[in-house]
Design brief:
45% helix, 366 residues, 14 helices, 3-stranded antiparallel beta sheet, alpha+beta, two-stranded antiparallel sheet, single chain
Length: 366
């Protein structure tokens, strides 16, 4: 991230003719650092429930939207009631609420300018309906794409303000500013769940009153985006395909989902191994069921060719013959195992006893 910002700054200097070239883009002068291979982390259900309980009632639906739909924070803050199609069971992700560097809000398309449809779980639909009834939506009018005042007719059409009824608003009925929400709501919920601890306090002046508010330093892995990772982990562990998950998350390609969430896939690598085992299977070999007698006895048979031959003949028999010879095969196997393990010690005992003089029993007294 720092590399990208510095390269952009130097690129602007080149455009302003302050520099002749951008050293960050020279192949032989400076090389970018290697990206750290970090795996996305997901929360357990207990942690999600604890954080949700630590939020105000009007904000608990935000956790449900992140977990149940895999939304980004701006997409959740930009949802309206019309985006929920309860009949078709889908949610239309059409916009996100953003803020520029000057703190001015505006609406825009989701990341990479891609709208999408996400399946709506039935239980999430019930929670959404309950939220709509308890906390009515609030009308909000914001410019589109850019909060700057338009200078041309084209920009005026492109930045025409949109009026929507947001389902997530502050207690004062305003749109949510993500920084204030993160500091005063989200981090407090993390602290209530025991995930973070206060690192200090901040003094606030509210008129004639002085308030001391605790400050928290939450790691990036515990911010709102972890709900999106948890959604992906639940989907993959349930067997959902990477292609479908990538479409629901709004990724540009399925490769993005593989790079971030491949470690969430159960049995990764084992399916390919099983497929090659089936491909290289010898048809002439009898297929032994996993729970058959031969599969159970084979690892337990000692290295005795005669015993192995008996077990092999018994495994090739029919089920009726096998049931009749089952006691005999088990008995022979056990005897062979005992005999093979005890044979060396008996031989040594015999050799030692043959060289030692035998003790003569003492005569009995009358």
């Amino acid at each position: 991230m720092i590399w990208g910002h510095l390269s952009s700054i130097l690129g602007s200097a080149v455009d302003d003719q302050r520099l002749l070239r951008n050293p960050m883009k020279m192949k032989n002068s400076v090389k970018p650092p290697r990206a750290i291979d970090s795996k996305a982390q997901a929360w357990s259900r207990e942690v999600v429930d604890a954080v949700r309980a630590g939020l105000q009632d009007r904000y608990q639906i935000a956790v449900d939207l992140g977990i149940g739909l895999g939304l980004r924070q701006g997409e959740a803050f930009g949802l309206v009631e019309e985006d929920f199609d309860f009949t078709a069971g889908i949610v239309h992700v059409r916009r996100q609420l953003r803020w520029d560097i000057k703190g001015r809000p505006y609406f825009s398309l989701p990341k990479r300018r891609k709208t999408r449809e996400v399946p709506l779980p039935a239980n999430l639909a019930l929670r959404a309906r309950a939220h709509f009834c308890r906390f009515p939506s609030t009308s909000c009018t914001l410019p589109w794409r850019n909060p700057e005042a338009p200078t041309t007719a084209l920009e005026e059409r492109q930045r025409k303000p949109n009026t929507v009824d947001l389902i997530l608003t502050s207690s004062h009925g305003n749109r949510i500013y993500y920084r204030t929400w993160n500091d005063r709501s989200w981090k407090r919920a993390l602290a209530a769940a025991g995930l973070i601890k206060p690192v200090g306090e901040k003094v606030r002046h509210d008129g004639n009153r002085i308030r001391r508010v605790p400050r928290y330093a939450a790691p990036r892995e515990d911010m709102f985006h972890v709900l999106r990772h948890t959604y992906a982990s639940v989907q993959l562990e349930a067997g959902e395909s990477v292609v479908s998950l990538s479409k629901r998350l709004g990724h540009s390609t399925p490769k993005v989902a593989l790079d971030h969430y491949a470690h969430f896939m159960p049995g990764a690598g084992q399916r390919g191994l099983a497929a090659m085992e089936a491909w290289l299977w010898d048809p002439s070999r009898p297929k032994v069921p996993e729970k058959s007698l031969r599969a159970w006895i084979a690892p337990r048979i000692p290295s005795n060719m005669q015993v192995k031959g008996i077990a092999s003949q018994g495994a090739d028999m029919s089920l009726t013959d096998m049931s009749a010879l089952l006691p005999f095969v088990v008995l022979m196997t056990l005897l062979a195992s005992i005999y093979a393990s005890a044979l060396p010690s008996r031989c040594r005992a015999t050799c030692v006893d043959s060289t030692a003089p035998r003790a003569v029993p003492a005569p009995r007294s009358s």
